[in-house]
Write a structure and sequence with these properties.
Blueprint: H1 7-29, E1 33-35, E2 53-61, E3 69-72, E4 78-82, E5 88-91, E6 95-98, E7 104-107, E8 111-119, E9 122-128
Parallel strand pairs: 4-9
Antiparallel strand pairs: 1-5, 2-3, 2-8, 3-4, 5-6, 6-7, 8-9
């Protein structure tokens, strides 16, 4: 048996290393997502109940805050939010609320009008700028 490794084997090894490095690099580029404070999931076919109040301000977020994302009203008052079930947040580098399809619904600094209402100290969101956030971004 020869100790010589042919050029074909070296090329296969080199290709394997390049593929592994590419996969590792691609996965490292994706920021992690975090679960938002959300409403409970609903059973299939069961609609959501939505309140009819409006709340406006700017979206703010911080990865160190347990709420991750909240609303800051014009006077500087913070309003903690409850998002529809299934949405998530990522920080890349600012907070971005992500739809079920992976699109960005809102990001830190966006001025928004939220439809919904206060439930147990949280503003429960049904619409973002007049659109259902579960309909995608």
């Amino acid at each position: 048996m020869s100790a010589f490794v042919g050029p074909e084997v070296i090329e296969v090894r080199r290709a394997f290393v390049v593929i592994v490095l590419a996969v590792v690099a691609a996965s490292a580029c994706q920021p992690p997502t975090f679960d938002l404070v959300t409403t409970p999931p609903t059973a299939p076919g069961q609609g959501r109940t939505c309140l009819m109040a409006l709340n406006s301000g700017a979206i703010a977020g911080d990865i160190r805050d347990p709420s991750f994302v909240w609303l800051v009203q014009a006077g500087g008052r913070r309003v903690d939010l409850r998002w529809p079930f299934g949405l998530s947040v990522r920080f890349s580098p600012v907070a971005e609320v992500i739809s079920l399809t992976g699109g960005v619904i809102v990001r830190d600094g966006d001025r928004v009008e939220l439809g919904g209402g206060m439930v147990k100290g949280l503003f429960e969101i049904c619409t973002v700028n007049g659109r259902d956030p579960l309909a995608g971004a």
